[in-house]
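Q: Give me the 3D complex with flavin-adenine dinucleotide.
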Amino acid sequence: MQMMMEYPQYRMLEGSETLYAIEGPRHAIEFQPLGSNQWMMHAHFASDYPRFVWMQELLLKAAQARAVSKEEFVDLVNAREVHEPLACLGRFNASEAHEALRFETNVELQALTTFGVSSISRHHVLVGSDEDIREALKAAKQNDWEVLIVGGGSNVLMHSDWEGLTLQQGIKGIQVLSDDGNRVEVLVGAGESWHDWVLHAVEQGWNGIENLALIPGSVGASPMQNIGAYGVEVKDCFLWLEAVHQQTGELRRFDHNACEFGYRESIFKQREKDEWVIVRVAFVLERNAPLRMEYGAIQSELKHLQHHEIAHKNVMEAVMRIRRSKLPDPALMGNAGSFFKNPILDERAFEAVLSNHPEVVHYTLEDGTFKLAAGWLIEQAGWKGQRRGNCGVHERQALVLVNYGGASGQEIWQLALDIIEDVKVKFGVELQPEVNQIRTS
Ligand SMILES: Cc1cc2nc3c(=O)[nH]c(=O)nc-3n(C[C@H](O)[C@H](O)[C@H](O)COP(=O)(O)OP(=O)(O)OC[C@H]3O[C@@H](n4cnc5c(N)ncnc54)[C@H](O)[C@@H]3O)c2cc1C
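A: Here is the predicted complex, encoded as structure tokens.
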């Protein structure tokens, strides 16, 4: 029964005027009367069993709480002012009129994705709140539209037009949850730009993500593939995220374990693929975070400084300079960063590669497996700098496929398939794409 219930559910506590918007089996926003004309808002997250039972009782036991319709709920909330609205829950600040969603038709996604291939989305909507998302998902259900979430479009290759609904994530906001002078917990809206968030954090002295500067895309997509660069991954400073279920509208909190992070992986690319819309991400950063300078390129960028002179901001700026010199700017040449993941092999498979190619570039991982440099494999196979029609392999970075202008998704994908096949024949290693391949089913 719980699984089939649609969220949010609205309740009024019997014998009192307290209202609850229940957003999932473990989430509720409480509106508690404060005097005669104000509400005090509280966000409840039932992380332990007693609170879970309490929330279930609110949901399921009519004797304790009466179900109210959304319209009645909104009217009741509107009848009073909200005293100090919760920043991250501003959508329930009833004084702000909720603007109707604007569904557009036949929207060209070319400019919304960094590969820049042409793809028409039959229906498109920009969402700015959880409520918007639920409304958009409801419309998709009613009209039988398949849903595609779009952030910054920097990790997708559109294979064709999108026959359903593209839902563009626009939830904004940065809110400090706690700060003990060193450790800072910060909640960030999924629609914020990842790089702008990194700049903001480093500016505030909140450190830990400076090595991830200049990665394109949105904050909401960052846990999807556990973005990583220069020795740091998003999982290293991740606290939790909240996501809305595409079918039920339930809001759920995923902690670190629940996300099942791996190398360019998370549960959202695997078991729970296409199930959730990530709406906000909480990070934990530290003013005294250690500097991450294991990469030789960072060290040589900063060699003019004494170690004690190096601040997190210097590391960030070094990373930005390195990235600008190595990677094509999507504004000038369409691409989605590394097209392939670095293959990870067990000892037996690795020995097989090594016996034929003793020079293979690789790293030994802590768990005894071996990560091969996909860029090296592609370069050795002779693909670096190769152009085919309107697309090709970047001349300085063999991992990056580029659109010189006018390439179709199919054209780029065929190039990728040929590279995969060739590397398999030459090295016995099967490359996997890192970029999400998008096809309407
Ligand atoms: C030049 C360049 C360099 C790059 N460098 C790196 C790098 O160093 N390291 C790295 O890890 N990546 C890198 N990338 C890849 C990319 O920037 C990241 O994967 C980024 O996190 C994608 O974010 P996005 O918002 O653009 O996601 P999109 O491309 O919009 O979406 C990616 C996938 O996530 C889904 N999605 C997006 N937002 C949400 C959401 N809120 N809820 C649920 N699903 C969602 C989409 O449906 C899609 O399947 C690079 C890309 C480029 C173009």
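A quick observation: The CA atoms of residues 29 and 43 lie 5 Å apart.
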